[in-house]
Amino acid sequence: MESKILDILESICGTDEIRSDRDINLFDAGLMDSLGLTELLIGIEEQLGIEIAPTEISREDFDTPNKIIEY
Amino acid sequence: MDRIPETHTFLNTLNYMYAYSMYLFFDFAGYSLLAVGTSYILGVKTPDNFNLPFISRDIKEFWNRWHISLSTWFRDFIYTRFVMLSMKKKWFKSRFTSSYIAYIIIMGAMGIWHGTEKHYIIYGLYHALLIILTDYLQRKSNWYRRMKSTRVYKAVSVAVTFNLICIGFLIFSGYPF
User: Fold this and answer.
1) pTM as predicted
2) B114 included as an active-site residue
3) Which residues of A touch B99 (CB under 8 A)?
């Protein structure tokens, strides 16, 4: 699951920095914005079958690769 | 003596724009903090509604710093859901089309949320336009990519964004209409 999440993240953010720095704050670094987060939720739903409602999570839950994997 | 001049000369309007923007911020952020403080005394941690909005480098950042309760609501309940739905059902060729239409919807709704007077609607659509332009230019411009980490760019973009915000508030005040 971890590798699938990283794959999705890499294709959304367009860089593999997310693999090397798992604690990088994606929003602060400009790698993700609202659209990116939306695509991430879609990716997780389609590839992992896990449905996460946008209102379920806050930005703090999802702002680094590690936090996403943990969730 | 009239504190707020009746005649809308360019200079008067400029003056009004900055004065009104400051008034709006201090008033709004002030009473939001009143709510935060009062609720905290009662044991409830209400999140902050403003986070240094005028240091924003672009209008997208601004909306993460101004009236956070409202913009977060619009983002989570309407923007994300609309984009997810339109992407799953493949309504548009490009995900950016989904995103931009969603911005028009939420910013338009935000305008109307303030009232149905035309200056509120124009205010909402004005911000929709700014967000779309900002996002588009940031994606496409190589100049932006090169300049964005320089100190000059950061300083100038804060100043430009501040003025764009104030123009928005001038519209919001209804003064020019």
Assistant:
1) 0.88
2) yes
3) 34-35
